[in-house]
Write a structure and sequence with these properties.
Layout: H1 9-38, H2 42-59, H3 63-78, H4 87-101, E1 108-111, H5 112-122, E2 137-141, E3 146-150, H6 159-171, E4 177-181, H7 190-198, E5 208-213, E6 220-224, E7 238-243, H8 250-260, E8 264-268, E9 276-284, E10 287-297, E11 314-315, H9 321-330
Parallel strand pairs: 3-4, 4-7, 7-8, 8-11
Antiparallel strand pairs: 1-10, 2-3, 5-6, 5-10, 9-10
């Protein structure tokens, strides 16, 4: 037989409710605490903005644009754009606000946890499994003597990527026509484009490829094609480069340089317009910034592709670039 103490039942119910509430708060409060820990305080936001402004004014290649960036940030702060955001939300908001002033697609604020993830993916451990190293395939059309090289990237100045590029060019060594497809390739290290370009000139005929300079020409750099590349060169082959709106940075540089040198026909759509190289800077509060510092232009000019993209010689609808290249090849047997 079960006896129930009716005199103490309300107290037992009250105690059980308190226990349930305490268990609920144990489960919930740590989450609120974690959220609070990730929120960047207004004081720290202000400090981050000061660092961003300082670095842009000191190093961005175009002083007038740097000043516009610097002027925008306090206005956005005053409007409450950065209040009560965690560091990853803050990174996204800062990037959007800066690009609303001038769309430099290289200028980017990162939260460190996402940046660390990206770096781990690019590390030797992250690349341990078999990788294309930026070059997915080479197809040979013997009927038209055409080599088609697909490179979705990105390009990294590593033994693996140089080796993959050299391997692709070795397969193309006897072709009269070469199509290099960099559609969707976000870029990477410009050395890979310069390496590919070198195959299309005879030894001893090195070309002034691109020119880079920092703010007030404090530092400048001439980029030339390489005097040595492994394997056979193709100085007489016709070169076609396929691009689209997602072709960016170093791959744009490759297309732009070869077009300017009148060594390639560029086919597709206007590219991304990312023409300022840079470096990664720490900002504090678990944030980093990719700071564009070096404008890249054609030799002996002030003209590059920053903000406007590479303009194709032959404009096509998306998906029709390769067919357009083959039509040009058919017209030049």
């Amino acid at each position: 037989m079960i006896f129930i103490d009716t005199m103490h039942t309300p107290k037992l119910i009250q105690a059980s409710r308190l226990l349930a509430f305490s268990m609920l708060t144990i489960g919930v409060f740590p989450q609120f605490a974690a959220a609070a820990d990730n929120t960047v305080s207004d004081q720290n936001v202000h400090a981050v903005l000061d660092v961003i402004r300082e670095k842009l004014l000191a190093s961005y290649p175009f002083p007038e644009i740097a000043q516009r960036y610097a002027d925008q940030l306090p206005l956005a702060e005053k409007a409450g754009h950065y209040h009560q955001l965690d560091h990853c939300e803050l990174a996204k908001r800062l990037t959007a606000d800066l690009r609303s002033v001038h769309k430099d697609v290289h200028l980017h604020i990162f939260c460190d946890e996402l940046l660390q993830k990206k770096m781990q993916e690019k590390s030797p451990a992250g690349e341990a499994k078999m990788s294309s190293q930026g070059f997915e395939s080479v197809q040979l059309d013997l009927d038209t003597s055409t080599a088609y090289i697909r490179s979705k990237g990105s390009w990294k100045a590593s033994d693996g990527t140089f080796g993959a590029a050299a391997g692709a060019m070795a397969l193309a060594a006897n072709a009269k026509n070469v199509i290099i497809d960099v559609r969707g390739n976000p870029g990477g290290d410009g050395e890979i484009g310069r390496f590919l370009a070198s195959y299309f000139y005879q030894t001893g005929d090195e070309q002034y490829y691109l020119y880079g300079y920092t703010k007030n020409n404090a530092y400048s750099q001439q980029e030339w094609t390489y005097a040595f590349v492994p394997g056979r060169r193709l100085p007489d082959a016709r070169l076609y480069i396929l691009v689209d709106k997602d072709t960016g940075s170093a791959t744009e540089g490759f297309a732009y340089a070869m077009q300017h040198l009148k060594r390639a026909t560029v086919i597709g759509q206007v590219t991304a317009g990312a023409g300022i190289a840079g470096e990664l800077e720490k900002l504090g509060s678990k944030l980093s910034m990719f700071l564009p510092t070096k404008m890249i232009v054609a030799p002996n000019t002030n003209e590059g592709w920053e903000g406007k993209g590479v303009q194709p010689d032959v404009v096509t609808a998306p998906g029709e670039e390769r067919a357009a290249a083959m039509a040009l090849i058919a017209g030049h047997p």
